[in-house]
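Standup notes, structure subgroup. Blocker cleared on the magnesium ion input:
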Amino acid sequence: MPPYLGESQESAAKFLSKIDLSGFGDPFRMEDILDYIDGIDAGNCAAKAAVDIALHDLAGKLAGQPWYRIWGLNPGKTPNTSFTIGIDSAEVVRQKVAEASAYKILKVKLGRDNDREMIETVRSATPVPIAVDVNQGWKEKEKALEMIHWLKEMGVVLVEQPLPKGQVDDMAWLRERSVLPLFGDEAVQRLPDIVKAAGLYHGINIKLMKCTGMREAFVMAKTARALGMKVMIGCMTETSCAVSAAAQLSPLAEFADLDGNLLIANDLFHGMEVRDGKITLNDLPGIGVRKI
Ligand code: MG
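Run returned:
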């Protein structure tokens, strides 16, 4: 559970125990069911996403179709996924980059005092494009702009959440001058947040655990595109269950950061696969998973 969203295993279990689906008989009435779930309590987005994903899986299985087909999306248009290289010693970073040679884009977390060193180390080991995620780590807009210029020279292709989400005026200033596309992550959780983000970011990072699941994520992707914004589909630390659910949407995204299942040792599912760096959807109905 991502700590900044305030959920825990206990809070999720408590939320799920409040659900009473006895008033619903038809799993295809997803709007009614998920409006009810969303109205039980505020927040609890990951717990709500659990219900949303299960319901989508059920409806897809009853219909005999994977969700990308129900949504009318082309599975050939999935993006490459980035693979995250964590902050570590130069030697370990180079080794991790070598192990990630199948990926066509790498993600590097910045926002500390060794940002340039980290990028130089990764760049010394590979020529692939780099996406950086600052996680609100830069505080001054002028310094952020200077870094963005330098990062572009270093082959970085996008910057995620450069400033704290509350620095709205600074973000508007930075977006106007930035030579790289800026993506909002912490600043954009649910659908209404996109409207506020439209003048501040070039794109948004959609995650099922932030936005209550597939129903809202699909509308968010369509809304962002209608507003001329780019779409990234991301994840938290998750099993292949949630990652495969998110992958169903990925033909709508220019960028994907769906490596959560690759960073855990206790995955319970087979699902979406990364082949030659690209998200590869299967023909299984629903969210495209089977239990290991
Ligand atoms: Mg992020």
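Discussed briefly. The domain at 73-291 is CATH 3.20.20.120 (TIM Barrel).
Next: hand off to the docking folks.
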